Amino acid sequence: MTDQGFIKIHRSILKWEWWQDANTMRVFMYLLLNANWEDSRFQGYEIPKGSLVTSYDSIATNLGISQRNVRTSILHLKKSKEVSVKRHSHFSIVTIANWEKYQCVENPSDNLSVTQLTINRQSTDNIKEYKNKRNKEYFNSESQNGRNKDFLDYLDKENKYGR
Could you tell me which CATH number the domain at 11-102 has? Predict the structure, then answer.
């Protein structure tokens, strides 16, 4: 189990057919949170992203529910085509259908054109420049005997190094 990263859950899950079934919901969340985020191999089997190697006993132990409840929950998820399961003698490979929907792999900047990125950058630079100018004017007018000299020096450095 990994403690890094996150998954994306849309509010529409509140209308999902298994939302009210606590065990099925918990099993599904467990599978989502433990699924591989990249392709891997396990004992000669290809485990694609969105899949995980597990057992009903392991899920039951981790969630504190019975194996029977896990089996029932997995059956629910299979019936609604949320998951598919390949059983092997000592483990199962569970694959989550539409796994990509639950991941934040999209990079919003990938969808922006170079022109739009340039405009966004220029806008940000202009805002910073305006704020720095306004702060300098304010602190120069409020400055008494150089009390704000350190702050003004900081603003000069920030502008010099492009922060």
Answer: 1.10.10.10
DSSP 77-141: HHHTTSEEEEE-SS-EEEEETTGGGG-----GGGGS-HHHHHHHHHHHHHHHHHHHHHHHHHHHH
Strand order, beta sheet including 92-96:
51-54, 92-96, 83-87
Residue whose structure tokens are 């990079």:
107
Whole-prediction pTM value?
0.60
Q: Cα separation of 85 and 38, whole Å?
A: 18
Strands 45-47 and 51-54: unpaired
User: Taking Cα atoms as reference points, which of 65, 66, 74 lies closest to residue 93?
Assistant: 74
Two tokens at 24?
Answer: 């099925």
Q: Structural domain boundaries of the chain?
A: 11-102, 108-161
- The CA distance from 56 to 35, in Å, is 15
Q: What is the pLDDT of residues 89-123, one digit of tens each?
A: 889 999 999 888 777 655 554 455 556 656 656 56
